[in-house]
Amino acid sequence: xxxxxxxxxxxxxxxxxxxxxxxxxxxxxxxxxxxxxxxxxxxxxxxxxxxxxxxxxxxxxxxxxxxxxxx
Length: 71
Known about the structure:
The chain is mainly α. About 70% of the residues lie in helices and about 0% in strands. It is built from 3 helices and no strands.
């Protein structure tokens, strides 16, 4: 089972019996969003041509949280 499917199933199971504001359900939903993002990133990287170290550094910096970061 893929990571995304695992998290989808977990969210579905939790959502059956918990209110939308339940912290465990909210955390599971965040985990699902992170898994979807990771899968998308992995797909894009696999399809991309070889990247220079400078480009890799720039892309990595986009994933690091930073307040006031210019886009």
